[in-house]
Amino acid sequence: MKDHIWKRVLEVGLYIAETKATVRDAARVFGVSKSTIHKDVTDRLPRINEKLSEQVKQVLEFNKAERHLRGGEATRRKYAERHRNTAAPAARERGT
User: Fold this and answer.
1) Could you read off the pLDDT of 81-90 as tens digits, one per residue?
2) Residue 32 has what DSSP assignment?
3) Which among 5, 6, 38, 47 has the fewest CB atoms less than 10 Å away?
């Protein structure tokens, strides 16, 4: 494993363990794809640091268990925003 990959794997693992971040959030922070982060923490990290890998695995399992809640909240916000954007111009046209 190349040095820069080895270093990124550890940094990503520490970041996820400390912040409880999702794979998507970590990908955004480190400027790599979700697939890269997933491979880093599920394939490479166990070979480098088993203890950190277990901590990250617990965070990922927790995030996976509650992702349906976050998805529902994101959908609710999306439609609320869409409703605000369509309702506001109509209200301006009516003068209310």
Assistant:
1) 998 888 766 6
2) S
3) 47
Chain centroid, CA 51 distance in Å: 22
Question: Secondary structure of the chain: what % helix, strand, coil (to 5)?
Answer: 90, 0, 10
Convert the pLDDT of each residue in 9-43 to its tens digit: 999 999 999 999 999 999 999 999 999 999 999 99
Residue with tokens 């990250």: 56
Separation between Cα atoms, residue 6 and residue 93, nearest integer Å? 59
For residue 10, what are the contacts with CB-CB under 8 A and spacing of at least 6?
A: 45, 48, 49, 52
| Close Cβ partners of 1 (under 8 Å, ≥ 6 residues apart) | 9, 44, 47, 48
Give CA–CA dist 96/86, Å, rounded: 14
Q: Please state, as a whole number, how many other Cβ atoms lie within 10 Å of the Cβ of residue 10.
A: 16
Report the residue count for the chain: 96
